[in-house]
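debug: dumping io for the single-chain case to check the tokenizer round-trip. Nothing else runs in this session.
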Amino acid sequence: MQVGVERMDKMTDLKELNKLETYLKLHNIKYERYDNEFMQSECAYVERHQICVPSMKDKQWDVICQAGSFGHEAGLLELMGTLVDESVDDVVEGWLTAHDIISRLESGDNK
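debug: decoded output
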């Protein structure tokens, strides 16, 4: 990290993202995971943690946990794509646990 550049986020709690990743591995669901930092502004870095299913190029849905995502303060996940509940009036749905997402996968609720 450059001198004079601050972190905008504290270390993100990745328990929920790790639980989801474990489930995907155990059930042989293809995914890609990305953990990286990016420049939010000229003087601040942000961590980004993302899982894309099946891949970044062909994603049907993905979850993120980073500064600015809905629920990141509590280590919760923000979901985008085919698993988003149709009753949600947005393209993303936040404040989700790994269990919330796994329940949708197991119920076949992935449109």
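debug: round-trip ok. The CA atoms of residues 32 and 57 lie 10 Å apart.
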